[in-house]
TrEMBL record:
This is MFS transporter. PANTHER family: CHLORAMPHENICOL EFFLUX PUMP RV0191, PURINE EFFLUX PUMP PBUE. Its main location: membrane. It is a multi-pass membrane protein. The lineage of its organism: Bacteria, Bacillati, Actinomycetota, Actinomycetes, Micrococcales. The keyword Signal does not apply.
Length: 413
């Protein structure tokens, strides 16, 4: 038996004003600028990690490299904690106003990051910066899906998520260069300014949008009693972690394994980002045809490319090509996993949407820790790629189980 999804239910509401295609496009693009800001802060710190470690610790070695990974981990932990809590608080709120509120918190946290004087204060500021991340994306994804309609919901979500991918293509390399030239902390000032810009764009272009009738924190909590949702969350955590196992240490891999100069790191980050842009839109296109079929394809490719990366990273042109392919295949998971998680919990759309970002950033934290562990254990800078391939293989097995549960529920795979 087929059931309507929460996105279909919201898109069928008739109490919102009708919008032209141009108005819808501008509103969704305005929301995606927030994703761009989030993408910059989430990924630029990885390329600037050597500068941050040298500034905060006074030296760079295997021990401080692993500690520097905590700048990634603590932001991710903030997302893991903040996404479900703030999504619950926003379950009954008008979505446009709530998105603006979350962007305001995000901007303030980045001002605090800019001025954080010690490693401990920086970790606290990174944690605070991560708190609004998932709830913003959950709110923005639901807004975009409702405006676009059920036939184009995954593609609308992919446009919102494309902010992250485009940030990796343009914003992250640019901010990495700025950080190398003028100081790594300027990344936080740039992100704060982008958050303020997004607030202005959302105020102008996005429509007011009420949540579905009957939405409540209690209803969202009841919607969590769902095996498919929790399997999907585990799948997202495991599946995404492989990418972060190598990307968290990409500047070290590029210079120490591949032999690139430090000045090439922004270009290498740009190439990874271009792969993410391609993968994000491929994932949105594929997910409107088969959500979990797209996940299977992406997970298989990630595992394959990770093994090849670990083996061939010393050959510069192959390292760059494989990094592009890892970015594109891993990013196909974004729209597909976001759509899958929402579909698994029709009574908890806001919370389910936020769990995608909790899972993604739990994977971010897990991947950074995995990479740090194998490096600190003395296995070298190629080892994170093999750890990532192992995680992707496990994710593939979990996907097969998710397909079984979906078919058993009578839903489209």
């Amino acid at each position: 038996m087929s059931h309507s999804t929460p996105l279909q239910e919201t898109t069928e509401r008739r109490d919102e004003p009708r919008m032209s295609r141009k108005q819808i496009a501008l509103a969704i693009l305005a929301l995606s600028v927030g994703g761009f800001a989030i993408g910059v802060t989430e990924f630029a710190i990885m390329g600037l990690q050597p500068q941050a470690v040298a500034d905060l610790f006074g030296e760079v070695n295997e021990t401080t490299m692993a500690q520097g990974g905590q700048l990634v981990t603590f932001y991710a932990l903030g997302v893991v904690v903040g996404a479900p809590v703030l999504a619950l608080l926003g379950a009954k709120r008008e979505r446009k106003a709530y998105a603006i509120f979350l962007l305001g918190l995000f901007a303030i946290a980045h001002v605090l990051s800019f001025f954080a004087a010690t490693f401990e204060l920086m970790l606290a500021a990174r944690f605070l910066s991560g708190l609004p991340h998932g709830a913003y994306f959950a709110t923005a994804a639901l807004m975009a899906a409702q405006m676009a309609g059920p036939a184009k919901r995954a593609r609308a979500i992919s446009v919102v998520l494309s902010g992250i991918a485009i940030a990796n293509l343009t914003g992250v390399p640019a901010v990495t260069w700025v950080g190398q030239q003028f100081g790594w902390r300027w990344m936080f000032a740039v992100v704060a300014a982008l958050a303020v810009l997004t607030i202005l764009l959302v105020m102008v272009y996005a429509p007011r949008q009420m949540p579905p009738a009957g939405a409540s924190m209690r209803g969202e909590m009841r919607g969590l009693a769902n095996q498919r949702l929790w399997v999907g969350i585990i799948l997202a955590v495991v599946g995404f972690s492989g990418m972060f196992a190598i990307y968290s240490y990409i500047s070290y891999i590029a210079t120490d394994v591949s032999g690139f100069g430090e000045g090439m790191v922004p270009m290498i980050v740009l190439i990874f980002g271009s792969g993410m842009v391609v993968g994000n839109f491929l994932g949105g296109w594929g997910s409107d045809k088969s959500v979990l079929g797209t996940v299977i394809t992406a997970m298989t490719l990630v595992a394959l490319f990770m093994v090849l990366f670990g083996t061939l990273a010393h050959i510069q042109w192959l390292m760059v090509l494989l990094l592009f392919l890892i970015g594109s295949s891993a990013s196909m998971l974004g729209p597909s996993m976001q759509t899958h998680l929402i579909d698994t919990a029709p009574k908890a759309p806001q919370l389910a949407a936020s769990f995608h970002h909790s899972a993604f950033n739990a994977a971010n934290a897990l991947g950074a820790m995995m990479g740090g562990w194998v490096i600190a254990a003395g296995f070298g800078l190629r080892a994170p790629a093999y750890a990532g391939a192992t995680a992707a293989t496990l994710g593939l097995l979990i996907t097969l189980y998710a397909i079984y549960l979906t078919k058993r529920a009578g839903e489209k795979v």
